[in-house]
Write a structure and sequence with these properties.
Secreted protein, Lipocalin, 188 residues, alpha+beta, 11-stranded antiparallel sheet
């Protein structure tokens, strides 16, 4: 009887999706890229005055621990940005760590949000949290999401209620040379 029950449960898991939470599958897939660097292109929201336009966009999956992944994001020579992902209780949090060239924190830093559920294996969504709303009032309606598959990693931003949308897609099939440390990471 137990064998039949396990077979039925196994069939249900196969028929209706993976047995692992989407966030765990996503997390493990992202960790496979630890140490790798990729170049990206803006795939939505580019404007002529955008500080990202015309710049080399690079992400480096620099630091992977059991519950933290840190991904510096360089815009040309600007090495001020790091995406910090944290995995806790089957949900992922995204924060934006912004630094000055001397390594000190920018006054607008540590904003982001926590997924409201475990999400899917190839997409995680992060609505702005209260800290973000208090820090940057106009960003209180932000939703960030990351898509991940075998070919690409895409970082996205949508400001609900506005036309603001931004996406940058990185080609995971073409690793590039590892850059120098981001601002504030020297010696780490």
């Amino acid at each position: 009887m137990k064998r039949i029950l396990f077979l039925i449960l196994g069939f249900v898991q196969i028929a209706f999706g993976q047995s692992e939470k989407g966030s765990k599958v996503f997390w493990e897939e992202l960790k496979k890229h630890c140490g790798q660097t990729y170049e990206g292109t803006i795939t939505a929201g580019a404007t002529p005055n955008d500080p990202f336009s015309g710049k080399k966009l690079v992400m480096h999956v620099r630091s992977c621990a059991e519950n933290h992944i840190k991904i510096p994001f360089f815009v040309g020579e600007d090495k001020s940005r790091t995406w910090v992902l944290t995995f806790d209780n089957d949900v992922i949090t995204l924060k934006h760590d912004h630094r000055h060239q001397d390594g000190s924190e920018d006054k607008v830093t540590q904003y982001g949000g926590t997924a409201s559920n475990s999400g899917l294996p190839n997409i995680q969504s992060f609505p702005a949290d209260q800290f973000t709303a208090d820090l940057i009032g106009y960003a209180s309606n932000n939703v960030w999401w990351i898509t991940l598959d075998e070919n690409s990693f895409t970082y996205n931003l949508r400001r609900i209620g506005t036309e603001r949308v931004f996406s940058v897609t990185f080609d995971l099939k073409k690793p590039i040379a590892t850059p120098d440390a981001p601002w504030g990471w020297e010696g780490k």
